[in-house]
Design a protein that fits this description.
Elements (H helix, E strand, L loop, with lengths): L1 E2 L7 H9 L5 E2 L3 E5 L3 H10 L4 E4 L2 H10 L9 E4 L2 H10 L4 E2 L6 H5 L11 E6 L7 H7 L3 E6 L1 E5 L4 H9 L5 E4 L2 H10 L2 H8 L2 E4 L2 H10 L3 E4 L5 H6 L11 E3 L2
Parallel strand pairs: 1-2, 1-10, 4-5, 4-7, 5-6, 7-8, 10-11, 11-12
Antiparallel strand pairs: 3-9, 12-13
Length: about 250
């Protein structure tokens, strides 16, 4: 299993891979850096006053919580992209959070509370880049999006150890894909032999949209998992009898 999670964020997927006896390569395209400046604090203050607030990741919750206390105002609605983000918000003090069963951008946009947005203010707590579908879709529904980018993804050079592990792989390998930016960034950062080896891997993607991006990047064997949670990614991966989801191979 090849993880494209940020540096220091591989533990959950590593444990899931170990449970099914799979090897593991941590191939981070970036590291996360929380913001701590007055402009970010002000943007967050404004975003959390909106009628609706969307939060895109557990890291966004952690970064926001480090800047101010989080709580729901009377009549305010909070939304999370997935169960992990919703759980982080509840731990931070926002008790009532809506999250989709399908834990991706498309699932979030299908929630009833995000349909009729004409003339409404919507706080959006995230990081620059990523979730590129959400803001244009919310604006198209009439929302005035008040964005607070509370952390950054800082691109890093893949470690020599990770590149060597990738090149040394003899068994079939599977890329766990939960970010389109991650796969594009890592392919651009890898030396040519490592890039070619990565493209020989199967991909298990957290959504149909990400599966399409993987095929565009040149991956031939792509499966779609139920969600981005480690157990769902592993359930869709062709490892030790796993891989029960429908596989999609390019003709």
């Amino acid at each position: 299993m090849i993880s494209l999670r940020p540096r220091g964020e591989h533990a959950a997927l590593r444990r899931a891979a170990a449970r099914v006896g799979a090897g593991f390569v941590a191939l981070s395209p970036w590291q996360l850096r929380l913001r701590d400046d007055e402009a970010t604090r002000e943007a967050l203050r404004i975003a959390t006053q909106a009628t609706r607030v969307v939060v895109t990741s557990p890291t966004a919750v952690r970064a926001a919580r480090s800047l101010q206390a989080l709580h729901a105002r009377p009549g305010q609605q909070w939304f999370a992209v997935g169960a992990g983000t919703a759980a982080a918000l509840r731990r931070a003090g926002v008790a009532d959070v809506a999250a989709p069963t399908r834990m991706d951008s498309e699932g979030l946009l299908a929630l009833p509370g995000l349909q009729d947005l004409a003339g409404s203010a919507l706080g959006f707590i995230s990081a620059p880049g990523g979730r590129g579908v959400l803001v244009p879709a919310l604006q198209a529904r009439g929302a005035r999006v008040l964005r607070a980018d509370v952390y950054d993804r800082v691109a890093i050079t893949p470690s020599t150890r990770a590149v060597n592990q990738l090149l040394a792989l003899a068994a079939p390998s599977v890329v766990a894909l939960s970010s389109g930016d991650a796969i594009e960034t890592i392919l651009n950062a890898l030396p040519a032999p490592a890039r070619e080896r990565l493209l020989q891997s199967s991909v298990v993607a957290a959504s149909e949209r990400l599966a399409g991006l993987a095929r565009q990047q040149g991956f031939a064997d792509v499966a779609v998992a139920r969600s981005a949670r480690p157990q769902d990614l592993l359930a869709a991966a062709p490892i030790n009898g796993q891989g029960r989801q429908t596989r999609q191979r390019r003709a």
